[in-house]
Amino acid sequence: MQIYNDTFLSCNRRTKIHTMTWQPDTGVPVRGIVMLSHGVAEHVRRYEDFAAFLTRHGFLVAGNDHIGHGESVEGVGLGSFGLTGGWAVAVGDMHQFHTQLLERYPRLPCFLFGHSMGSFLSRTYIIRYRLGLDGVIFSGTGHQSRAVVNLGKAAAERVLKRRGAAYQSPFLNKLAFGSYNKGFAGRTLFDWLSRDEAEVDRYMEDPLCGFVPAASVFAEMMKGIAYITNPQNQQRMRKDLPVLFLSGDADPVGENGRGVMRAYRSFLDVGMEDVSLKLYHEGRHEMLHERNKAEVYADILSWLEGKLEQAEA
């Protein structure tokens, strides 16, 4: 596997967006691209093991650190989207990177993998941009009710007015994540991420993970979730785009599967033609870092290969 780091200028015109590309070794035929969209309070480098697996099977894997995450922090700081419009900036940055990948590898099918916040960004992406993707995988996603989203939006906007966009609000953090650890062992504050204690420890030891996001991130995420759960917006998705939802059935972000099922059904309701769902028993939020990640990796590979076969038929 060959690894390349690069940057490009964000849509905000001041932040350098960090990218990583994992390329199969020489001699391994490249069959497709998997573009990554990571979650909140993490970064793209955490996906290296997953990327190594896919490159062994002929997939080029690439992703960027979203604005305010990982190494994409110039001018905004770690954990912040900036002053206004951060969701649109993050989606616009994804589009820039996606366009670059298609220009570099014009003959390769391209798939998008979005996890957690990255799944919400990816769901925004496929509403706004209809071309250039051959399939999408949503990991650790949910489908919050309008009442919950409106409550979150109102709370975030109040904090923004009083304390500013960059303020790291313990109140908003508790509102968003405070209930997630209930029902788990309580060894750490992040047991809800995975049953694998070593993976949880690695997350906690990573200085680029687990921070309290700025008020701007919470506000923009609520706007983004309101956008993607609006059926009128969902109608704009390309109906023949293959979609896979995968989640643990003990993931609090997906309400232990219930929110994932609502998302799945909402795609069917607007006429999406190829939608699949996989729930893993006792799996928590980060299925790529779970005890049964080998099973998850294999299921993702099987789905990708199936879509390649359909495209070639």
Task: Please give a structural write-up.
Helix 3 (117-128) links the parallel strand 5 (110-115) and strand 6. With 313 residues, this protein is an alpha/beta fold. The protein has ten helices and eight strands. Strands 1-2-4-3-5-6-7-8 form an eight-stranded mixed β-sheet, sandwiched between helices. It has a single domain, classed as Alpha/Beta hydrolase fold, catalytic domain (Rossmann fold, 3-Layer(aba) Sandwich), CATH 3.40.50.1820.
The profile of the biggest β sheet is:
8 strands, mixed
Provide the low-confidence segments as ranges.
none
User: Helix and strand succession?
Assistant: EEEHEHEHEHHHHHEHEH
CATH class: Alpha Beta
User: Cα-atom Rg, whole angstroms?
Assistant: 18 Å
Mean pLDDT: 94
In total, the number of strands is: 8
Strand order of the largest sheet: 1-2-4-3-5-6-7-8
The CATH superfamily bears the name Alpha/Beta hydrolase fold, catalytic domain
The amount of beta strand, in percent, is 15-25%
What is the level-2 CATH architecture name? 3-Layer(aba) Sandwich
Structural class label:
alpha/beta
From the spread of the alpha carbons, the general shape counts as globular
Helix content range of the residues, please?
A: 25-40%
* Cα separation of the termini: 29 Å
Tally of domains: 1
CATH topology: Rossmann fold
**Secondary structure tally, helices:** 10
Characterize this entry briefly.
Strands 1-2-4-3-5-6-7-8 form an eight-stranded mixed sheet, sandwiched between helices. The chain is built from ten helices and eight strands. Helix 2 (86-104) crosses helix 3 (117-128), helix 3 (117-128) packs across helix 7 (215-228) and helix 4 runs antiparallel to helix 7.
